[in-house]
Prior knowledge:
Blueprint: H1 2-21, E1 36-40, H2 51-60, E2 65-68, H3 73-76, H4 86-97, E3 101-105, H5 113-118, H6 145-162, E4 168-172, H7 184-198, H8 201-208, H9 232-260, E5 266-268, E6 270-271, H10 282-287, E7 293-296, H11 305-308, H12 315-329, E8 333-338, H13 357-367, E9 370-375, H14 403-420, E10 424-425, E11 429-432, H15 435-443, H16 452-467, E12 471-473, E13 484-487, H17 495-506, E14 510-513, H18 536-539, E15 542-548, E16 553-557, E17 560-572, E18 579-584, E19 595-602, E20 605-610, E21 612-614, H19 616-629, E22 643-649, E23 653-660, E24 666-676, E25 682-688, E26 693-699
Parallel strand pairs: 1-2, 1-9, 2-3, 3-4, 4-5, 6-7, 7-8, 8-9, 11-12, 11-13, 13-14, 14-20
Antiparallel strand pairs: 10-22, 15-17, 16-17, 16-18, 17-21, 18-19, 19-20, 22-23, 23-26, 24-25, 24-26
Helix pairs in contact: 1-6, 1-9, 6-9, 9-15, 13-14, 16-19
Bound molecules: beta-D-galactopyranose.
Amino acid sequence: MNLRLSVLTGLAAVSLLGAARAASPAVTIDPTPPLMLGSAWYPEQWPEEQWESDLSYMQQAGMNMVRIGEFAWSSLEPSEGNYSLDWMERAIEAAARHGMVVILGTPTDTPPAWLTTKYPEVLRVGEDGRQLQHGSRRHFSIGSEKYRELCAQIVTRMAERFGHNPHVIAWQIGNEYTEDSFDPESRARFHAWLEDKYGSVDALNKHWVTAYWSQTYDDFSQIPMTTGRANPGLSLDYKRFVTDTWRSFQRNQLDVLRAHVAPGQLITTNLGGLGWANRFNRQQIAADLDVISWDEYLGSGYDDVSKNGTGHLNPYRSGSTHDLVRGWRQQNFWVMEMAPGFVDWSPTASNSLDKGETRAMTWHAIAHGADCVAYWQWRSALNGQEQYHGSLVGPDGTPVPVFEEIAQAGAEFARMGDKLADTTPESDVALLHDYDSRWAIDFNRFSRRYDQMEVLQSYYQALRDQTQSVDIVVPLAPLNRYKLVVAPSLNVISADVAQHLIDYVKAGGHLVLGPRSGMKNGFNALNQERQPGPLVPTLGARVEQFYALLEPVPVAGEWGKGTIDIWAEIFDSLAPDTEVLMRYGAGNAWLEGKPAVVTRRVGAGRITYIGAVLDSSLMATTAARLVTDAGIEPVRLDVPAGVSVGRRVGADREVFVVINLADGPREFALPGAMADLLNGGQVERLELPRYGVAVVSRPKA
Length: 701
Ligand code: GAL
């Protein structure tokens, strides 16, 4: 427990420092532009006499924001306690002279060589027991108290110097939180975390059912730290521990910043590895910040080129990721990094987006609720690990071909700022995304064919086609604003989540559960009531058995006919008022004739359980049915396939961002005359070339 004591002492010292600064003169921070376009710029890599040229080109591209500093520790503190912040101040002032506000990164993703040489204990240790060395980034341990102390020192210096600089509108803590560490200090933290949670090792043994395979522990220190196939209770708690460790790592810097910086300066971090990455619970990280930002890259993770095939913009995949990020705080967000054309790390081909596609992707983010898009990076670094990456200007500092289309977006952003100010996407439908469930299924997929993200995506796509707007939120988010809530794979249902969902249904909502719902409790142990666990009494039915399938099986009933595949659950113990909507047909004797979809009215609302993975056409008719039954207005703009529509709503207006992602030009009628915000005047039809963008608006009905 010494460890926890020292955390507290460290934080207290920082807050005292902050109290001393509270008397600083009030300054007015530059207003955050309602729409920001910018890029990551690394002035520390370039001779100062070249800054003007860089900034002039940024201004020419219509940029109104620049992000600096996030990897600059060795330039800010060249040796321990020897700070060099003047260059940063000059860079901020120069950017301001060119009409740009600044987002300042804390450089804690890249501890300098003097630091790791003097304090080697702060270096990250991989799960294989190997300690990282200097020469890359992310080589620190998030659990190291010494590292947190050193972070607090550099951030304090920066905050004292720039916390009241009027041109600094926001701070970014670190960069793309990624790796956890397996060093001895982190292990001690894990054991302390478990002790805090369970109080006694007996309680832990009970919830994890450690009698299984004689896993019973006598002492917290015996518990392994592993991401391998472990006890499911341990695996789930390890993820929560990593979340809490990142959260306290972040809090250490947040406390410094909050104590020193003017209230007008917002605090964020750029969550990377794509929004769906699930090393830790990103929604909980987001909860502590003022604004959430993420880095949208195609070509890895959920947007894997091997799945996507191309590395081009897939509006459903990118769109669902934006919606997920927006849902963490149920507010607009920033895209802190986007590749201008191409990355340099794609596992297959770092192919370029097509001509026009980067601008389309930029507007696509805005359509889904982004208020900022920044590119990574401004200028090709002459050396370092990312020499080939897409940029706006080349190593010589003059524009590359994609510059022109980004400049077009810049000019458009400048005109659209006040039109899009105070608007946000609105939806009647929510999908639930839950990290505990996500992890629980990933620890044991049971069938390699069951890809829960594909299942979620199939619901998202079908519902978005119907409504042009879907929110993605955590189960405990306020749900009463939604007419329809769909939980595609809510595997873990704790008592509080169950109560929240029951309240939603009773108050008049329609809750739709997908396969694998409610198998597990909050300790990742099987629910003895069977599925959907604590919702069995509400549903008036339980899953009698689940089956992983290798072949499709027909289903038929009130929603029509189709096939299901991959996963099938059969229901029994039906209450008299629980209806069977669909039944399995012939082909698999375990399933034949058994209920596949059941539903029940409860209070003013309804609960439905779809026990199988539907084929795409049955999914489309199901989504249409669910949307109509919930009284949700159908598609707002009737557009051809391949044209993507995002709707942002303000107090008095609706703004539609319409993007043609089809393989050629498309022309179509609008439901009535609308203001053409990009070109002026009123339009009743849109004619869009491939990758063409229109922003149209009408008064709110
Ligand atoms: C991001 C990272 C940037 C840069 C970029 C390249 O993940 O935050 O610093 O490395 O990738 O695509």
